[in-house]
UniProtKB/TrEMBL annotation:
Signal peptide: none
Region (Disordered): 156-186
Organism of provenance: Macaca fascicularis
Compositionally biased intervals (Low complexity): 170-179
GO molecular function: growth factor activity
BP GO annotations: negative regulation of cell growth
Protein name per UniProt: Oxidative stress induced growth inhibitor 1
InterPro entries to which the protein is assigned, alphabetical: OSGIN1/2
Length: 186
């Protein structure tokens, strides 16, 4: 008879995870943050510098960005990415970065544990991907996410989202699950 350990959610550690994020760069880290149950909302008093986007954001006050029509919200946005959702995320997280400004994010984040999905982030290089080759300029390009490292050597990423804990995706020397109450130990 095999013994099966239970994690903090009561799930067996031998059960497969429903989501595996391949890549621990900025996109993978942001996806992990969303899957950890952090939900973006527009700040009630926020004013976005893009007039069309500002008008659209006021149409559904108090509704999570994730529960809105992302195609509609991203219409008319331009930038370096070919992905409309990436352009929208960049525009909301750092509204005027493309123009050299430093305007604060129009987003606020709420941790909704009931929306968390168990997952693991896998990466073969240092967490942060492009940050390690783009230096300080990369911090602005990736919305303020910045890599730092814990004394234990596992990669730790300072969250771009105010009032949230650090996030620890996979380190280059070993694979660790994303440290959320929703993730399983490997």
């Amino acid at each position: 008879m095999s013994s099966s350990r239970k994690d903090h959610l009561g799930a067996s550690s031998s059960e497969p995870l429903p989501v595996i994020i391949v890549g621990n760069g900025p996109s993978g880290i942001c996806l992990s943050y969303l899957l950890s149950g952090y939900t973006p909302y527009v700040k009630p008093d926020a004013v976005h510098p893009h007039p069309l986007l500002q008008r659209k954001l006021t149409e559904a006050p108090g509704v999570s960005i994730l529960d809105q029509d992302l195609d509609y919200l991203s219409e008319g946005l331009e930038g370096r990415s070919q992905s409309p959702v990436a352009l929208l995320f960049d525009a909301l997280l750092r509204p005027d970065t493309d123009f050299g400004g430093n305007m604060k994010s129009v987003l606020t984040w709420k941790h909704q544990e009931e929306h968390a999905i168990p997952h693991v982030v896998l990466g073969r290089n240092l967490p942060g991907g492009a940050w390690h080759v783009s230096g300080q300029r990369g911090h602005a390009l990736w919305g303020g996410l910045s890599p730092s490292f814990s004394p234990l050597g596992a990669g730790t990423l300072a969250s771009p989202f105010p009032h949230s804990p650090p996030h620890n995706p996979a380190s280059p020397s070993s694979l660790h699950p994303a440290p959320t109450k929703a993730s399983h130990a490997l």
